[in-house]
Amino acid sequence: MLFVCVQMVVMALMYREGYRKRVGYFLGIFRKGGTPAAIAQGNLTHPGDVYANLSLIVKPAMREEDLPFCPEKSPLINGPFRVTFPPMLTMAEVEQKNPFVRAGGRYKPPDCQSTHRTAIIIPHRNREQHLKYLLYFLHPFLQRQQLNYGIYIIHQAGNYTFNRAKLLNVGFKEAMKDEDWSCMFYHDVDLIPEDDRNLYTCDKYPKHASIAMDKFGYKLPYKTYFGGVSALTPEQYMKMNGFPNNYWGWGGEDDDIAIRFNMLAKTRRTWKQDGMNTMEYEVLSKEFRPLYTNITVDIGSEKGFHPKT
């Protein structure tokens, strides 16, 4: 009787918050008998928690090559989740909540073979607080989609003007040395996804994944905006010669890349001379940290690239 009362209270709270589907789920449990698997295994996460259901992932006792392919639609996808920032969060806590993530921020579903191989490229410098919270949300977000993925932080060394676009080009080239990725996501460090139905996979055409952001009132700031989070296959990226290398400081490169898709006059004259085929840089270090691969690079400055001797 006590268990039934507790369940009724939970149902009432869920209904009040609009979770009618979950209420139906609990009613189904009562009709069929038994206990929800999530509760049975100790997954007491709150509704809307990005880590909900991940405790259900169990590595089966079989060889990796014998695992079945993951289903076309992941059963772990749960829709919108709450984005709230845990106070005093540490990287160690993020590691503990993601036990299947391997060194370098690499992950494969332990219970099935994913058909998607996605690399996340994040340009970075002195944004550790943003990075920590992005990793807190991004790792479970990607795991719920049952992706084979890796997270690359491309850190610009020195104090020269930041160049997001060139760092993305470096990230592409360095990530492709590690694995034959089928999809590349170019991701700002301060953007956190809010709905795991926004799949981090590539389509037939280049994809803009951050088409609705809270800072823009969940609308595009202008029609040709392609910034924030975008996705391209390696073939698409090389076909357009990557991002331009000559945009120092934030902004500008997003408009240029949108123009490359439209093949307007200025881009027709310049895009073949500024991109992957003209990029110069030097890798200073490559570290396989628990939650990501950190690649520190010297990309020069507005005055050019002068490698250290």
Automatic annotation (TrEMBL):
Keyword Hydrolase: no
Pathway note: Protein modification; protein glycosylation
Gene3D superfamilies in alphabetical order: Spore Coat Polysaccharide Biosynthesis Protein SpsA, Chain A (3.90.550.10)
First-tier enzyme category under EC: transferase
GO biological process: carbohydrate metabolic process
Major place of residence: Golgi
EC number(s) given by UniProt: 2.4.1.-
Cofactor(s) it depends on: Mn(2+)
Subcellular location: Golgi apparatus membrane
Pfam families per UniProt: Glyco_transf_7C, Glyco_transf_7N
Family according to the record: Belongs to the glycosyltransferase 7 family.
Protein name: Beta-1,4-galactosyltransferase
